[in-house]
Design goal:
The longest helix is centred in the middle third of the chain and has 21 residues, at about 190-210. The protein contains 13 helices and 15 strands. α10 (about 270-285) packs across α11. The protein is an alpha+beta fold. It is globular and about 65 Å long.
Length: about 400
C-alpha cells in the first residue's frame, strides 16, 4: 500500500473515531475521595499498625535512620491484608534498571497449606528483599554473567501502591536494585545515596550557622512532563515512530508553531477526556497532579505535579509516564515521550522544579525578604550553582 493511501486511511479512521471509554463523572466520585486510595500511605499504616511499629517506620521515613528489621513481619502482614482487600493476588518488587524502563517480578500471595488448599502469605523477608535474575540487565560490564545475581531492596521512603488491571490488581513495592557486591544496577540507588550525601553535607553547613537539631535535609522535586499525542492510526503508519519513538524523515508541515497559537489554547475535547481519566488514575496513586495545558508545538501538552520528596517524585514520574501511555490507548491515541519526536518544532522537556529543606529550617533556598543579607541562603544558593557548573556533564547524561 502506498504512503498516500495509508495516510488517507488514517485520516478516515480519525474522522470516524468514537470514544471507547465510558464518560467519567467526578460529581459522583469526588477527586478527594479517591486521592491516595491505592497507596499504602502513612494514614493507612497508622490505622493498621501497632503504635510502636508505626512510629518506627515513620521515624525511618522522616529521618532516614535504619529500619528495625524486627518490625518487617508485622508491616508485611498489614500490607498483605490491605492489598488483598483491594483485590490483589500478587505482589511485585518494582525497580528501575539501566534499560530506561521499569521492571517488576510478580509473585503470588497464595502458598499450598499441605491439605489441598492454600493460604495467603507475605513475610517480612519477602517484603524487604527479592532476588530477580540480573544476568540480562545492563551492568556496564562490571560483572560476568555467572556472577550476575541481583537483589531488590525495599525502599521504605516510597509508599507501596496497588496497580489496577481489568482482571485484578497487584501490590507494587518500590525497590532499589543492586548486585551481590553492592554495585548499583538501577536508577533509584544513586538517588538514595545522593540524598544521604546531601543530608550529610547540608548538616555541616547548617552547623556553621548554629543549627544543630539534626533535622534531615532532603530534596524536593516537581518534574513537569511534556508529551505529544497523535492518533494511533497515524502512529502505526510510521515504523520510525513505532521503533524509535521519533520520526526519522518527513516533510515540514504547512503549519507548525510559527504563530504559537497552540500554547495555552483551548484543549480539544478528546484530549481533555484523556487528561481527565489520566488524572483520576494518578489521584488513586497519590500523585498530586496540579497543572495541565497545551504546549507550544501542535499536539503537544504538559502535565505537572506539585513538588514532593525527591525520591517519591522520581517514582511518581515513572508512574505518570506509564499512565499517560496506557490511558492514551483507550482514547485511540499514542503518547510520545521522546525528547524530540519531530523536527522543526519544539521537543518535550521535563523541567524539574528543585529545592531542599528540612522540617526545622524549611526551604533552604528561600531568599526571604532580605536575600542579600541572608548568608545561609547565599551559601546554599552558591553551592548549588557551583555544583551545576562543575557536574554539568553528569546532569546532562
Amino acid at each position: 500500500m502506498s504512503g498516500s493511501a495509508t495516510r488517507l486511511q488514517a485520516i478516515a479512521a480519525v474522522t470516524n473515531y468514537k470514544p471507547i471509554s465510558a464518560p467519567l463523572n467526578f460529581a459522583q466520585t469526588k477527586p478527594g475521595e479517591i486521592f491516595g486510595s491505592n497507596v499504602f500511605c502513612a494514614k493507612e499504616m497508622k490505622k493498621r499498625l501497632p503504635k510502636d511499629i508505626y512510629a518506627s517506620v515513620k521515624r525511618t521515613i522522616d529521618t532516614g535512620v535504619k529500619l528495625d528489621p524486627s518490625v518487617a513481619n508485622v508491616i508485611a502482614a498489614a500490607m498483605r491484608d490491605w492489598a488483598i482487600e483491594k483485590g490483589a493476588t500478587h505482589y511485585a518488587h518494582v525497580f528501575f534498571p539501566l534499560t530506561g524502563l521499569t521492571a517488576e517480578k510478580h509473585d503470588c500471595f497464595l502458598q499450598p497449606d499441605g491439605q489441598g488448599g492454600a493460604i495467603a502469605e507475605f513475610t517480612g523477608e519477602s517484603l524487604i528483599q527479592g532476588e530477580p535474575d540480573a544476568s540480562s540487565f545492563p551492568s556496564g560490564g562490571i560483572r560476568a554473567t555467572f556472577e550476575a545475581r541481583g537483589y531488590t531492596a525495599w525502599d521504605v521512603t516510597s509508599p507501596a501502591y496497588i496497580l489496577e488491571n481489568p482482571n485484578g490488581t497487584t501490590l507494587c513495592i518500590p525497590t532499589a536494585f543492586v548486585s551481590w557486591t553492592g554495585e548499583a544496577l538501577d536508577k533509584k540507588t544513586p538517588v538514595l545515596r545522593s540524598m544521604q550525601a546531601l543530608n550529610v553535607q547540608a548538616q555541616r553547613i547548617l552547623k556553621l550557622f548554629g543549627h544543630t537539631d539534626g533535622a534531615m535535609v532532603s530534596s524536593t522535586a516537581g518534574p513537569e512532563q511534556e508529551y505529544f499525542l497523535i492518533d494511533r492510526n497515524f502512529f502505526f503508519a510510521r515504523p520510525d515512530l513505532i521503533n524509535a519513538g521519533r520520526t526519522l524523515f518527513g516533510n515540514k508541515p504547512p503549519k507548525g508553531q510559527e504563530f504559537e497559537d497552540h500554547y495555552f489554547g483551548a484543549i480539544p475535547e478528546r484530549v481533555l477526556a484523556f487528561m481527565l481519566e489520566s488524572e483520576r488514575e494518578l489521584f488513586k496513586l497519590g500523585i498530586p497532579v496540579k497543572t495541565r495545558h497545551n504546549e507550544v508545538a501542535p499536539a503537544q501538552y504538559e502535565i505537572a505535579p506539585s513538588f514532593e520528596f525527591g525520591n517519591v517524585a522520581t517514582d511518581h514520574q515513572q508512574l505518570i509516564m506509564i499512565t499517560l501511555k496506557r490511558v492514551a490507548e483507550k482514547y485511540g491515541m499514542a503518547c510520545l515521550l521522546h525528547e524530540k519526536p519531530f523536527a522543526g518544532i519544539n521537543g518535550s522537556g521535563k523541567h524539574v522544579n528543585y529545592s531542599l529543606g528540612s522540617a526545622s529550617q524549611g526551604n533552604l533556598l528561600d531568599p526571604g525578604d532580605t536575600p542579600h543579607a541572608n548568608a545561609q541562603f547565599l551559601v546554599f544558593c552558591a553551592a548549588i550553582i557551583r555544583a551545576v557548573d562543575k557536574h554539568a556533564k553528569l546532569l546532562r547524561a
